[in-house]
Structures are given as C-alpha cells and as structure tokens.
Amino acid sequence: MSIKKYNACFLGCESEYEDADIVIFGAPFDSTTSFRPGTRFASKVMRSESFGVETYSLYQDKDLEDINVFDGGDLELIFGDPAIALDQIEEFASEVLSDNKMPFLIGGEHLVTLGTVRAVAKKYENLHIIHFDAHADLRADYLGQELSHACVMRRCWEIIGDNKIFQFGIRSGERQEFTWGKDHVYTNKFNLDHLDEVIDKLKDVPVYITIDLDILDPSIFPGTGTPEAGGIDFNTLLGGILKFTKLNNIVGMDINELSPSYDTSGVSTAVACKVLREMLLVK
Amino acid sequence: MSIKKYNACFLGCESEYEDADIVIFGAPFDSTTSFRPGTRFASKVMRSESFGVETYSLYQDKDLEDINVFDGGDLELIFGDPAIALDQIEEFASEVLSDNKMPFLIGGEHLVTLGTVRAVAKKYENLHIIHFDAHADLRADYLGQELSHACVMRRCWEIIGDNKIFQFGIRSGERQEFTWGKDHVYTNKFNLDHLDEVIDKLKDVPVYITIDLDILDPSIFPGTGTPEAGGIDFNTLLGGILKFTKLNNIVGMDINELSPSYDTSGVSTAVACKVLREMLLVK
Amino acid sequence: MSIKKYNACFLGCESEYEDADIVIFGAPFDSTTSFRPGTRFASKVMRSESFGVETYSLYQDKDLEDINVFDGGDLELIFGDPAIALDQIEEFASEVLSDNKMPFLIGGEHLVTLGTVRAVAKKYENLHIIHFDAHADLRADYLGQELSHACVMRRCWEIIGDNKIFQFGIRSGERQEFTWGKDHVYTNKFNLDHLDEVIDKLKDVPVYITIDLDILDPSIFPGTGTPEAGGIDFNTLLGGILKFTKLNNIVGMDINELSPSYDTSGVSTAVACKVLREMLLVK
Amino acid sequence: MSIKKYNACFLGCESEYEDADIVIFGAPFDSTTSFRPGTRFASKVMRSESFGVETYSLYQDKDLEDINVFDGGDLELIFGDPAIALDQIEEFASEVLSDNKMPFLIGGEHLVTLGTVRAVAKKYENLHIIHFDAHADLRADYLGQELSHACVMRRCWEIIGDNKIFQFGIRSGERQEFTWGKDHVYTNKFNLDHLDEVIDKLKDVPVYITIDLDILDPSIFPGTGTPEAGGIDFNTLLGGILKFTKLNNIVGMDINELSPSYDTSGVSTAVACKVLREMLLVK
Amino acid sequence: MSIKKYNACFLGCESEYEDADIVIFGAPFDSTTSFRPGTRFASKVMRSESFGVETYSLYQDKDLEDINVFDGGDLELIFGDPAIALDQIEEFASEVLSDNKMPFLIGGEHLVTLGTVRAVAKKYENLHIIHFDAHADLRADYLGQELSHACVMRRCWEIIGDNKIFQFGIRSGERQEFTWGKDHVYTNKFNLDHLDEVIDKLKDVPVYITIDLDILDPSIFPGTGTPEAGGIDFNTLLGGILKFTKLNNIVGMDINELSPSYDTSGVSTAVACKVLREMLLVK
Amino acid sequence: MSIKKYNACFLGCESEYEDADIVIFGAPFDSTTSFRPGTRFASKVMRSESFGVETYSLYQDKDLEDINVFDGGDLELIFGDPAIALDQIEEFASEVLSDNKMPFLIGGEHLVTLGTVRAVAKKYENLHIIHFDAHADLRADYLGQELSHACVMRRCWEIIGDNKIFQFGIRSGERQEFTWGKDHVYTNKFNLDHLDEVIDKLKDVPVYITIDLDILDPSIFPGTGTPEAGGIDFNTLLGGILKFTKLNNIVGMDINELSPSYDTSGVSTAVACKVLREMLLVK
Q1: ipTM above 0.85, yes or no
Q2: Does B10 fall in a domain?
Q3: Is F37's CB within 8 Å of C37's CB?
C-alpha cells in the first residue's frame, strides 16, 4: 500500500493537465439567481456523486478512461459581484484555450456561460452558440441588472452578433424576449425538432455549446432553481447530444443550473453526471 | 417611494373585484382525505411560489396582465365538518356568480368541488362537467361518509343527472364505481383520447371544469395525497387545456389535490401554478 | 366488536398459508450495495403504504380479493454476510415451492434474487429467466466480491447456463459485461422492444421473472440506490407485465431495488406497490 | 423453518389478548387538526420503526419482554366525522376495560383522548387526568367546532369536573383559555416543576395520563403539527414519566400528536417509541 | 359575506400604516452568502406559516392584537448588487423613521442590517447596537468583497464608532476578527451572560437590536445557512429578549438568517415567528 | 493564474504526508449496520461540507493552519465482507503508525474502529480506550455475526483485556451487555460525569479515543443510523473533548456513525466537522 493524497476529481477525469484535451472546471456562482439559489453546489456535489455512474457509455460504446480529461476543480469566486466573477471565469478559460485544450465549464447559474464565451470568442472568429434551455435568457436587463442569468444570451449576442445563436427547448420568457429575439437569434420552441438542420449548417464553424439543464422536464430534473414543466425527456436530450458528434469544431462547452439541494433523491445530480459523461465522450 | 400594504395575491391576479372577470379563491380543506392529507396548504403555497412563473404564456401567446382576475384569498373553513365547509364554499361562489364573474376554485381535496358545483348548478340549467382525474370518485360512500373526496362526482351527479359528467384520465377505483358509472357518466380511461369529440359536443352548453391534478403522472406531480402511476404527462394535460378555448360557455373551474409538502423540490407547486395560468388564459 | 391481533400484511394478501397459491415474502438485505444502501426497508414500507392503492386493477379488470396470496412477512437476515443471507432465502423459497406455491420475493438489493433462483432451479429443470433492469449485473466479481448485486445475473447464469437469461431495459454497465454477455445471455438494450418474441418463445417453459425496478426512469422511480436516467416509463413497464399473462409456466417472481427513503414523496413506494399488484394479478 | 403469518406489532408487545395486562391500539385520526395534519400515520410508523429501539430500558432496568402487552392494531376510523370516530374509540376502550386490561391509546391528534377518557370515566369514579402538553387545549370551541383538538381538555373537564385536570408544560394558547382555566384546572406553565406534589396528591386515585408529545421542545421532536419552541428536553420528560411509578392506580394512558412525515430524519418517531416503551414499563 | 382582497400579512400585524407604531418589512436578499443561500425566502415563508402561532404570548401576557404593527411586505431587491440593495433598504427604513415609526427588518442575510442601521444612525445620534449572533461578522472584507454578510458589523462600526456594539453568543470567526474586535467592540462569547449589565448601561440611549438567529443552537434552528453547533437554546434567547423591556429607547430591530428550505420540518420558521412575536411585544 | 489539480481534502488538512503529524482517512463501510445504513457517505460529505466551518477554534484559540494534518482520502472497501474491510483498515493504520504519525479514522459504522485498534494495539502495549457512545456495543454476537457494529467494543476487549475500556454516555443496549460489562469494562451511563477522574488515571498511558457521534442527543445529531434520545448536548461533548488535552499519550482517534442523508438540514455533518476540528486541535 502506498499512501496518496486525497483526490476527488470527477469520475474518470484523472489526466494530468499536460496530457489533457479537455479541462473541466466549476464556477460555483449563483448571486444573480432571481428565484431559488443553490447552483453554487453543483460541481462539488457532481464530483462527489459521480462514482455512482459508470465510465462506460453504452449509448456511444466509449469509455471515459479512453479520453484525456483534466479536472481543474472549482474557481474561488466572490459572491455578490458578478462582474468580477465573470472576469475570473474568462481568465481561467483563456489560459486553458491558450494551451490548446477545450474548456468545459460546470455552472453555477447560467450567467457563468458569459465568462467562457468571452474567452472563446476572443480566440475563435465567427463563433456560433448552440443553446439548450427552458428559458430564452434574452432580456436586456433584469430589474436593472444587466449581468443576470436572465440576460446571459443577450450579453452573448452582443459579442457574437445576429444569427449566431441557436436556441432549443425554449418554453418560458417575457413576451418582449421573443419579440426581440425574432430578429436576432434562432429559437426552436419547446423541443429539439430542427436540431439536425442546425447541426448540418454549423458543422464546420466554431461552435460553443451551452446546456441549461432545465431544458429537461422537471420530472427528471427537479433539482434546479426554476422548474418549468413541459420539457424534453432524458432520451431526447441524449439524442440531441449524440448529434453533436457531427460538429467538427466544438470549441467550448458548459452545463449549468443544477441546484442539487432541491432534489433530495439525488436523481438530478445523477442526470447531470450522465449528461457530462456523454458530452465529454462526444467531443 | 410610497409604503403600501402587503399584498401577496397569485402572480398577475391583481385586479380590483369590480373590474374582474374571474375570481380565484382557495378552499384549504382536506378533512376527508383518506390517505395522505395536506392539500389545505395548496392555495397558500401556490401564491407564495407563483413569482417563479412568468405571466406570459408562450403556448397561448397571452399574458395574465392582459386579463382581469381578482384573488379573493382563502376561505376560513372549519376542519372536521365537511357539510359546513361545503356551505361556505357554495356561499362564496354564489356571490361571485351573482356579480357575473366566473368562480375559479383552488382546492383542497377534491370534495370542495361540490361546493362550487352546487352554486353553479343553481345559476345554470343543463350544466355539464368535464372532469380530469386519476380516480373515478364515484363511490356512494366511503366508510359510511357520503361527503368524501372519493364520492365527489357521485354527489355532483345527484345534482346534474345522467350523461352530464365526462371523465378523462381515470386509472383507479373500486370495481363497483366503474360498474355503476357505465350507466351514468362518460369515462375515458387512462388518457384524453376522446376529448375533442366531447368538447365539440359541449361547446355551447354551460360547462364546469374540474381538474384533479393527480391526472398527471406522479413523475411530474408527486406532491399529491394518492400518487397513482401511469398518468398523462404535462404536455398532454396542457394540450387538453388548450382545447378548452373551443368551449363557448365555461361557467366555473377548479384545480385541486396539490399537497405541496410531499414534494420538497417544489416542482408540483410550480406545475399547479402553470396549469392555473394556462386555465385562466383559456377562459 | 371483537379485538383481533394486529395484522399488517400487504393489501389484499390475507389468505391463510394453506389456501394460498402465491406466497410473498421480504428479504430486507442490502449489504453489498455499492452506492446508496436502503433497500432493506422496501418490503416493510410497501406493506405500510399499500393501503393507498386499490385492490382492483382497471388495467386487468381483476381484483386482489379474488386471488389467494399469503404474506409470509420478512426474513430475519444477517447484515454483512451475503452467503448466509442467500441460504436463508433459498431455504424459505424451497419450503414454499415444496408446498406447491409460487414464491414472490420482495428485495432488498438485487443479489437476493440468487437465493430464490437457486431454490426454483432445483425444482424446475430448463429454467429461464426474464430480467428487467437498468444494469446488466453480469460482472464476474465486484472489487473481489462475487456475491454482489452487480454480479447477480452472472451467478444465475452459472446455475442455468447459456441462452436462458433474457435481459430488457439495460442501459448501464462496464464494457466487459456486454462483451461477455454477447455469448451467454440475450440482452435487449434500453427498452422492451423484443419482449413479445421472447415471451412467445418461452411460453411453455418454466420462467422466473426478476424485475429490478430501476428499469423505470428515475423520474417515476427516484427511490433507488443507483438512479440511471433514460429508463422506460410506467405504462411501458405495465405493458410488459401484462404480456406475462401469455406465459403458461411462471414459477417464481421478484421485484427489488426499491430504496424508499431516497424518495420522500412516497411515489416510488406507490409505484412498487402497483407493480406488485399487477404482477400478482398476472399469475 | 415454519412459515408464519406476517406480524408487525410494536416491538415487544407480542402477548395474546387473554394474557395481556395492557392493550395498545392506534387511532389514526387527524381531521380536526387546524395547522399541519399527518398524525394519522403515527401508530403505523411507530410499529414499523420500533425495531430500532431496544426492549430493555437502562433507565428502569426493566424489559418489555417481562411484561404482557397486546397490540390491537389500528381502528379503522372515518375521516371527516369526529363524533363517529370518538364513538369508535370509546367502544374499543370500553371493551378493553371490561376485560380488566388497561387501554393505551396511540393518537392521532389530541382529540382522540376524549374517546378513551369517556370510556375510562364510565368505569372509574373520581377520575383525574395528568396532561402533558405545549398547548392548553381548553377552548370552548374552535371556529365553531366543539370536537376539536384545541378543545379536548375542555371536553374532558365537562366529564370529570373542576380541579381534576393537572396540566404541565403548557406554553401556548389564547388568553381566554388561561383566564377560564384558572378556575377549573391546575396549570403548571412551561415545565414539570410541581409534578412531585401533584403525583403525591393523586397517588391513590384513578389517574388517566395523556401526553401530547409536543410538550417536548421541537429540537428533539420536530415531527408534530404545531411545533412550539421552548419545550422540555427528553431527559426532563423521561424524569417525569419515571415518577408515574408512584401512582398506584393508573387506569389509562395515551400519547399523541406525532406527525412522522414532518421529520424525515426519523428522530421524532424514535422518540415516540422510546416514550411508549418507558410508559409501558412504568405501569 | 363580503369579498375582500387577499391579504396575507404576518399574523396579527394588520394595522393601517397611519395607525402603526412599528413597521415590519422583508429584505429578501442573500447574494453575498458564502456558504448556503436561501434566506431570501425567510419573510415570505414566515408570513405564510405565522398562522401556526398564537397572537397571545404566555411569557409576556400580551397579545399582538393589542399593539399596532403594519406589514409593509417585501422590498423588491436586485440580486447580485449589494450596494443597490442596501440603498433600497435604507430608503425604506428612512421613510418609516421620518413618519415616527420603528422599522423592524426581516432578513435576508445579515448584510441587510447595514441598510437599516444607516437610516437609524442618521436620525439618532449616539446609536448603540446589541448584536446576537454565532459569528463575529467583523471582517474587513471577505475575498475582497466589503459588502458581505461576514463584514456587516465592521461596516456598522465604521458608522457608529468604538464601544457602541455589544455582541453576544459569538462562537465562530477568524482569529483576526477577535484580535481586531478586542479594541473596538464588546464581545460576550458563547452566551448571554453579561446581558443584564449591558442593558443596564444602555437603558437610556438609542439602541438598535439585530438578532442573527443562528445564535440559537442548530438543534432548534437548523434552517440557516451556516449552522454552528454550541449555541444557546430557545428559552435562553427568549429570556434575553424579555430583558429588552428595560430598554427605554429601542429605535430599530431586525432578525435575519432564517433559510427555511434547509429545515423541511418547519421548526426553524416557527421559531423565527415566535421570536418575531416576542420582539414586537417587547417594544 | 496557474491551473492546479483538483484537491478537496478536509478543510485545513493540506499538509504533505511527510510533514504530517496526524493522518486522517475515511472508512466508508456500513455493511453490518442493523437498522438504517448510510454512514459510508460520512467522510465524503464531511470533506465537501467542511468549507462551511472555520479553521480557527474560539474554544481552544488554535487554528488548523498551525498544525500538520494529511488527508489520506477514503479506503476503497468491499461491501458485504467485514473481515476483509477490517484488514484493509488495519493495514492502512499500521503504515501510518510505522511512519510515526497518528491515525485518525473517520467512519463508517462503529465496527471500523476495530481495524484501527488492532493496528494501534500491535504498536502500543497497555493500550486503553476511551469510548463515547449511546450504545454499549458489547454483544458477543449480533444474530450470529461477530464482526458487527453492535459487538465492536467486545472485540476490542478481546484484544486489550479487562478494565482498559472506559465508556461514557451509554444509554442503550441489551440487559446482557450490562451484566457482562460490569466485570470487564468501566461504564459511565448517560453522561460524562466521571471523565475527569478517568483522564487523570490515564494521563500517561497510551490512549485510543473512539467517539460514536450518537452519544450526542439526536436533537443536535439526527443524521445517524439509530437515533437514541436522551444524549448529551454539543457543549458537553465539546467540554469532554477539551479535557483530552490532559492526556499525554493519545495514539489514535476516530469518529464514526454520521449518516448524512438522514439529516437534510446538514446540521449533523456540520457538527461532525466541528468535532473533528476540535479533536485535531486537542492532539
């Protein structure tokens, strides 16, 4: 027996940094969450619960042990100051990108996506975003706050411009978000129906994928801040993710909005872990 | 700033009584619940959690802010005496009806429907009822108690007569309920399959709609007293509700059987709020 | 009134032993559970909650009161010694079988199936097993432990041999389980698609049915040790069970892996009770 | 091995009726509970969890296996009609008393005490009651309902008269309850301070003991309908119970107001089981 | 019957603004919470659950119905920007003070106290603060953030100066907080031992009272973000509050740090309601 | 910024192995738990939640950052085979001891203590044990199983002999345990009353300290398998721990029986973390 330092990275993500193709890291931030906070615990709890998941995917016939992923842990973010938190996320993602690795962010509330998108957009021209979500997140501001989870795709749009954002699964928002959105983003309401066409169109451009897990129906994903009934089921989400294999230039990914303490059964965390595994294996 | 009295009505239901077309009110009563009580808290918790829902419906492209709903709060009902509680509900609904507004009752156990139906049936001849539920609720009595949630549709039948009640989604009951029911009510088992035909038939008569939320599968609605697997999913229920727009004479509505404390994730309450929003917008 | 001894058997299973065709009994054992224990409480909690279910099945138009089931209670098993526990289960099942009654085991973790299968295989030559599960359970050993829930179907295979085990719904496992399994068992991944053909093939041979309830999607069955998203829904499982009526020689049954305390809503327990009722009525 | 019918009585209460000195029975009734219902599940859950308690008491150096207690199970009570439920309780208790056994009732809400007290008062003249509770329960009526948990001691007083009820631990009520109470009952506020004197005074008269478990501080007993901070701790309650050994004529006992589902940790149920054990051993 | 608008103010706080001596209001803010958020729901849930508490206090023999309290509801605060939130709180409290009423703030995280203290300190010279808490809250900054719950008493000290803050119950903090604190504030560690002397000293100066409810032991108050074992029990806290009657010039009060969703039993909320009642009656 | 590998050791236990004086390690084992399992998660959850605790102790005026503790992570133990699990624990502890560091074990069920005691007893002659617990754990066997949590102190006694074990806080067990114990171990029932004398007596001999956290009252520590009311409060336990500073030769320590999922408030885990901190600082 040889005594080793405690290590508790996400299941199967045990590469050294130098060897890694993908770097996962957590952004435990939920200060602008308007309804029920708690996403700050997502990455921690996912690591802890990931040992209930297999490294092998029967869906893709691939194993996490065959790819190289480094777990960079969680950023230490300041609560109550989104501007500084976003800077910290951007800085970390930029360093990963400059080492030619793909950043994979685990939120936190959806606002954290903005940090990674800023970093990715600096490196890749003509960036496109595929956005899975229950909510449009297209508000100009939320009670005056522009750096809010409810505005995150609007902020991303300000960086990458018109017709670069492709939303799926959207089923909730203010009327104005949709009115505005019609001229600036592509919105596939309620489901993933036109995902094939979009993927076909984006297959050679740099694509950032952001998945707000509340795109899932709350029956299978109750552990989130704003449960919104009428979402897609797990197999539909999984089917969508498997289609990402046709994208030739995925430059960044994130999943967000798991709030584990709202689901004492642990199912939501198990779902998030499985989604993470499948996304890692897709790349 | 001007300091105003605390108000915590259901989201977007802020009309004055005089201006209102619909009056929502709660009947926090569950004294005859035979398995797991707790529906008494439904209306209170729904108001409190409704601010997690949007006023705008992407499904109907309508907004609660465009219609006129008054929130009459909760009746103060006596626990342990269903006869008196039903009188109180009937009295309130009658006053609403006499002011030419539509009563919208939030239960409570399903028995409370009887109070509103009594009031509505006095005003409207030829009343029909559309009944969504997992349970037939057609018993003559339950352990000798005639004013029981398990008998509520039988009691309604005594008021409005044969072939006026149309049940959907029913998947549980005693054998005798179905034997009796065959001659007196229309029962569409398990799902909403023949709803179109029924709505077509009822489109010009006075219709009361009662939705026992346990028609939903407990995967999406675990917060109820008697969870009964095999129910419809949220989008199916929503599809059913949207069809009510074809009814020209809806004279009363209720939703019931949310028991929020059994679902610590809050999803069931969020579902009930969304159902309420869609039903209000349908009218 | 006449005062009788307390009796709390499963709903509608009140036959005397002599009169019974089926004997249900609990095996409260979870010592080898590798992730989240708690299935030891399943049978106890199911009895306690079964009074929330009807004895009548609208799906089969049959009633538990019309069949003869004896509830033998729970075995008193030693925690921490699977070999002895399995012996106790085998002994009990053997006695039931020698009295020409069918044993119906309520787990516990899936390992307990091995005890009943040993007993059944001694009595019935050419035994086949229909296995519903999320997990293949085909490992040679788990961290060196051969008597583990993760190995239970491998142990059963050692008893009954090649091409006798028919798995459905499998969506998780190690790569090696599937590699090995290809040559020894029939595995229908993800769903029940080819169940009809299998039932047709097995309709006259002795069949043991083991249902790991985690074949269900965790949306409807969160109360289990290793929730695995992407499972079948309740109506699909029910449809599968109803097909068992075509089997002419069912010689034993079990359900397992309910871990009630992970689901504070009680839905998982209600689901397990309903599955038990339908399986009892199928026989 | 010999297969026996399932039995799940309270730990160590396995006497036959004929041999028993004490008969425990449950009254699963909570229809008049004004705040949070759920005490109907207390007796069921206590039986189920009692196997986590030892039969031996280190406090009294006595063992349940040395005394004779019969578990009569739960009465099947009608929800929503307290008058009938009380009649059923009274009838059962009367039969027990006529067989010269002591009834020990497990509530349910506190109202159920009235049923047993009626039976006991018919048999024993000069009945006194020792009442442990957080609440005075002395209202004339509650929203017009006279058969309410909040009125139960007032109803008992109507049967046994002035200066026969001795309350301890009371820390909540309406002002009028205390104004009225001053002339009719003995109330020891907040704690058990004068219990010795009262026991000394009552040691040779017939005494009925009713313990509303919410006399305990909610830190140790959160599983109750109306948690009221500032109660006594467990050891103080236990000390009080041990003093009952000085009473020479205990003629009936009850404990009530456990509402197990409000305490997912199971502690409240474990506390109730331990209190029950100590009370049984005191007699 | 006359139909009135829904009102759901805190129990017994139904005065009109003009008549009120005390104005309670909620500050649902927790953006700087560093461990477990959720205090934003405290005021909402307290109102909803307050009907489980009596208006009458047996401890003080006073009734909420005899005093005049107005419930101003909850401020609508921006999440993620503590500076603006504090301005909003200060503005509201200032208006209350300018109308010669006492503000009573319900947090929210402890940072909200700073808003009210700013308003009160502008009106009253020589302001003193009595501070009940488990944590010293004296940091200069927390990860660079100066407007943090962990710094709130340091920020208050910057306004009112040395030897004006009297802390009780403190049992946690960084070493530096205590080193710094020794020269600037009075700290009574662990308990309320010297409260009498402090109250005697402050009886004629303007005093603001802030109670972080985590001064209570988590056994009785688990529903808080950072549970810290070793706190005082409820009766000790109550005893402390009753001593405030000797203060002749209480100019503001608050309670904070209830995070209701961490305590599914509801006890923590019931405790907070009872503390609020007793504090209102003390004034 | 420099990207480092994820590390999630217990708060403030970040020494390298070579520099450490104390080595903490987890034994996630609960296979013999007879009532409610779940202690296997204790060490994992404690690490994850430890960041809610301060490194500084106001009680001892010491800081974890001033001592040298290495976190060796969790052993990978086989479920369902206590003999092998104990060997693995013994092997690890032996290696730590041979490097002249003190092992500090985090259970797991109490049986794991046996592994460390075996290792310690091999190195230190005349070993004594101080044992804090609610339960005597002195059975010869439990349902035939000798390697059971209920027998652990009996097994330790077999190693170190008569009058070497000093038990405190014991309030539950079978009668035989106490009869046997009288002649072989010192048992201080219910509390820590004679701890001073024992510590005085043991101050120069090698002492192993094992704390079953269920010595605490379940009001403050509900998250355990067998809650046993009537325990000591946190400050009493803390007082006891502080007395260990007088022991000159502590050679091993453990805490055990935290079962975090039974306490959704997180308080039990926070308590365990605080106890661990104070014990580490005592050494």
Answers
A1: yes
A2: no
A3: yes
